[in-house]
Amino acid sequence: IERVHDRVLRGRAGAIQLEVNAVGRVIRELARQEGTPGQDVTLTIDEPLQRFAMQRIASDSAAAVLMDARNGEILALASSPSFDPSVFNSGVSQAQWQAWMANRRKPLNNKAISGLYAPGSTFKMVVALAAMEANVLGPNERITCTGYVELGDTRFHCWKKEGHGGVDLRQALKFSCDCYFYEAARRVGIDRISSMSNRFGLGVDLGIELPGTRTGLVPTRAWRLAQSGGIPWQQGDTLVHGIGQGFTQVTPLQLATMTARLATGRQVKPHLTRAVGGTIQRGDRPEHWPMIGVADRNLRIVREAMSAVVNEQGGTAYASRLSDRQMMAGKTGTTQVRRISMADRERGVRQESLPWEYRHHALFVCYAPVENPVYACAVLIEHGIGGALTAAPVAKDIMTEA
């Protein structure tokens, strides 16, 4: 932030013109031009919340982002493990640098803004909206989940081996049914999924004032052709992207932005600068941000489903609900970091038994309160096994503190 606002903070130097004698002794002052002090820059970060978020994820390789969903102000932006930047003042020893480089949890990487991850099931709200907006899937239509979908000679599995049976959109989000979203993605197609993703802040430059922020990727057919040297997009690719896997890569900051836009229906942008010289720099009220351009009815259906995820028995994040007085809505996500073989499925290999770097990433996105959203949050735990298991409890604690 100091780098971005350097000219504003620095001010302008003054000048004094002096008459001196041959030995440099000052005889008199001829002229003086006073300097201009720099302006104050007020940040959006809430220091107690920032400290709490850092402490809450300190034992993990993780990131957490907390935003004001109404205006995009970033209240906490945490990445763990971190490092003490003051050591650069006196020079970093070779031993310290090698220790940082060898640390598989990558302390020098700000995971919140530059870590790229498959969004997993946190992506399903975007797929649902793309399908409803394109009128290829109605919210009340029931799709049967038997535990897998077959396409050619390939099986695409649901996380629940025995399947969910017949589910509508609300139930599919509540239970996080993969087979439902395979079918939703097949009907709507990757290009419309990508377009809807961009509207919600995924795979695009959000314009935040931090160097090193990455835009990620939500692929299209044209992207695939360009990258593969003419190999076309396959329908199997579409199915995989329906559950937030495949080529899709996003940052935790983008997931928090997506959640804020889902909660408010407005194109809020994340930012860290509240004011420069006392002048507000961004829209500080919801009406300052344009509407997202998605039908209110469709947004309402997705929001009700996200509430069911957390507040209804059977929802994947029911164990991390807040209280009847302050309810939050959310969505769990779990993403593979390596392919699960048929042999692994048959043996029932447990994630806990795998080496740390082979375990699934855990994600959770949420907003609260349900009825009048104020906060939006995204949590990522690298190799945290499951969103409901490790990411949702962290988000619950951060939301409770907020």
Strand order of the largest sheet: 5-4-14-13-12
H and E string: HEEEHEEHHHHEEEEHHHHHHEEHEHEEH
Strand content: 15-25%
Shape: elongated
Count of helix runs: 15
Helix fraction bin? 25-40%
Low-confidence stretches: none
Q: From the helix content, strand content and strand pairing, which structural class follows?
A: alpha+beta
Report the sheet with the most strands, covering strand number, pairing sense and barrel closure: 5 strands, antiparallel
- Rg from C-alpha positions? 25 Å
Mean pLDDT: 93
Counting DSSP E segments of at least 2 residues, the number of strands comes to 14
How far apart are the first and last residues' alpha carbons, in Å? 23 Å
Give an account of the 3D structure.
The longest helix is centred in the last third of the chain and has 16 residues, at 296-311. The protein has helices at residues 6-10, 47-56, 87-90, 94-102, 111-114, 124-133, 169-175, 178-188, 190-199, 221-228, 235-241, 252-264, 296-311, 342-347, 387-401, and strands spanning 15-20, 26-33, 41-43, 62-68, 74-80, 143-145, 148-151, 154-157, 165-167, 273-276, 279-280, 329-335, 361-368, 375-381. Helices cover 34% and strands 18% of the residues. 42% of the residues are buried. Strand 1 and strand 2 form a beta hairpin. The protein is built from 15 helices and 14 strands. Helix 6 (124-133) packs across helix 9, helix 7 runs parallel beside helix 13 and helix 8 packs across helix 11 (235-241). The protein is α+β, with helices and mostly antiparallel strands and 402 residues long. The two termini are 23 Å apart. The strands form five sheets. A five-stranded antiparallel beta sheet has the order 5-4-14-13-12. It has a three-stranded antiparallel beta sheet with strand order 3-10-11, with no helix packed on it. A two-stranded antiparallel sheet has the order 1-2.
